From TrEMBL:
<protein>
    <submittedName>
        <fullName>VanZ family protein</fullName>
    </submittedName>
</protein>
<feature type="domain" description="VanZ-like">
    <location>
        <begin position="8"/>
        <end position="137"/>
    </location>
</feature>
<feature type="transmembrane region" description="Helical">
    <location>
        <begin position="86"/>
        <end position="102"/>
    </location>
</feature>
<dbReference type="InterPro" id="IPR006976">
    <property type="entry name" value="VanZ-like"/>
</dbReference>
<keyword id="KW-1133">Transmembrane helix</keyword>
<dbReference type="Pfam" id="PF04892">
    <property type="entry name" value="VanZ"/>
</dbReference>
<dbReference type="InterPro" id="IPR016747">
    <property type="entry name" value="Phosphotransbutyrylase"/>
</dbReference>
<feature type="transmembrane region" description="Helical">
    <location>
        <begin position="122"/>
        <end position="138"/>
    </location>
</feature>
<keyword id="KW-0472">Membrane</keyword>
<feature type="transmembrane region" description="Helical">
    <location>
        <begin position="61"/>
        <end position="79"/>
    </location>
</feature>
<keyword id="KW-0812">Transmembrane</keyword>
Length: 153
């Protein structure tokens, strides 16, 4: 039971972090991402001709993708530790991640200067799908390795 509790703690903590970051008013959120984008721009601009705004947008959208990439993996792991089969766990982790993305964008409608964007839900869902795809590949490789190891015993 203790392992099961820990398995569910991580997706809940990650969802709380997403909620916290989404709850930042537009000025605060933009300030955080602008600061990070400025550092990235200072590194990239001397090598590749790029506008600051392009770097800023890519950083923000990739943050969406990465946040839900991680969330989906945390959810699928918790579901697997709860005894759910791999295929069902992947489906439910995708559904859970995508629904959380929708609620996150609705939540932002109530934050000063923020908006809910369908495009962000699609980016979030793409991140979740990619995370689950990677998880599925790694799980399959581990299964094949275990099967091969047990055949040699």
């Amino acid at each position: 039971m203790k392992k099961l509790s820990w398995a569910w703690l991580w997706p809940i903590v990650w969802m709380a972090l997403i909620f916290y970051l989404s709850h930042q008013p537009a000025g605060v959120s933009s300030g955080i991402s602008s600061s990070l984008a400025r550092h990235l721009f200072d590194v990239v601009a001397p090598i590749v001709p790029v506008e600051f705004e392009t770097i800023h947008t890519l950083l923000r959208k990739n943050a969406h993708f990465l946040a839900y990439f991680v969330l989906s993996i945390l959810l699928v792991r918790a579901l697997r530790k709860s005894g759910v089969g791999l295929a069902r766990a992947i489906i439910w982790a995708f559904v859970g991640s995508s629904l959380y993305a929708v609620t996150d964008e609705v939540h932002q409608l109530f934050i000063p200067g923020r908006s809910g964007e369908l495009r962000d839900v699609l980016i979030d869902s793409a991140g979740a799908a990619t995370g689950l795809f990677v998880y599925g590949i790694v799980s399959r490789m581990e299964w094949k390795q275990q099967k091969k190891a047990s055949a040699h015993q």
